[in-house]
Structures are given as structure tokens and as C-alpha cells.
Amino acid sequence: MEAEMTLRPMTAAEQMYSYSQSQQISMQTGLIGYLRADMDNSGKVFFSSWNGFRDSLKSEDFKQEFDEVLNELREDGNLLHDRNTLGRYCHRTPDSSFHNDRNEYGTNHYLYRCYKPGIRETQIDLLKEKILAGTATRSDITRVTRRLGDEIAKVYGFSIPRTRQPVSKER
């Protein structure tokens, strides 16, 4: 892979999108599809199946990057190499647990945004540095990028609410 990959536990909000949602939510969030993966009885052979939702969004670039990520995760010592390696990862990163009765874990997901018009390369580079360092804030991201979902919604004739969760202030 060209870029270094850093895994992090899924947030609680991201976990909600780990399973099929309603048609409306899936359309609004730009769901392309999901991968179901498993190991054979020996724990050494990895196999998977793709469950497409919106194949029209599955571009060649997406396919290539997705294959690169999956192949990298299957390399020796990486998360999906075999059941023992996966088990060690889950044990070392309890924050990635869904904390349910199915003993599920998750890592970061793909999120697509577009750079705003007029953004300078230096601003883009700074944002990339912050993202890679894990220090990017929502404000950093929205200053340089815009939501892609709004454009997808226009194409398919629906709207995405712009509601924000209230922030509680402790006194």
C-alpha cells in the first residue's frame, strides 16, 4: 500500500453503521456495501463475501483501495492474518469491543468528504498531518472539507438533516 494504515477502535456512533440500516439511512449515508469475513475451522484460511448496496458508487478507485486495504490486513502479523492474530488484537484493544453478547469488535471506517473550493495545499497538508497524528478536531475537518452526502442526496432526490447534538456544559 502507498499510505501507512493506522487502525483505531470504532466510536459508538460508527458501530451503529456496522449492520444493515433502513433503506433511507443507507441512502443518506452513502452506503456502498459491506464485507462479511470469516476464518475457516482451522483459523488459518480467511474468506469473505461482498454485499453490495449501491454498486453505482463502487468506483474502480474504491475497488482498488478496498482490495489494497484488505490484502494489507491479511499480511503476516496484521489483523486478519489468522484467528490467533485477530484474537491477540481484540485482547490488546478492548476499546474496539462492541460490548455486546456477540463478542464483536470494529475498527475505523471510510468517511468521504470533499475539499472546499479555494482551500490551499498548505491547509490540506496541515489537515492530513493532524489526521495522521490523531489530533484533528471536527472544526479542523469542517474548515477544510465539506460533506459529500449533500451532493449524493441531490442526485437521488432526498435531503440530509443538518441537526447537531446539543453540547452539555458541566459547571
Structural notes for this entry:
This protein is of the alpha+beta class and 171 residues long. The protein has two domains: 1-110, no CATH class; 112-160, no CATH class. 36% of the residues lie in helices and 12% in strands. It is built from seven helices and four strands, in the order ααββααβααβα. The chain has helices spanning 12-15, 23-28, 60-73, 83-92, 121-133, 138-144, 149-156; strands spanning 33-39, 46-52, 113-115, 145-147. The protein has a two-stranded antiparallel ribbon. A two-stranded antiparallel sheet has the order 3-4. It is globular. The N and C termini lie far apart (47 Å).
Please name the defining characteristics of this protein.
171 residues, alpha+beta, 2 domains, two-stranded antiparallel sheet, two-stranded antiparallel ribbon, 7 helices, 4 strands, 12% strand, globular
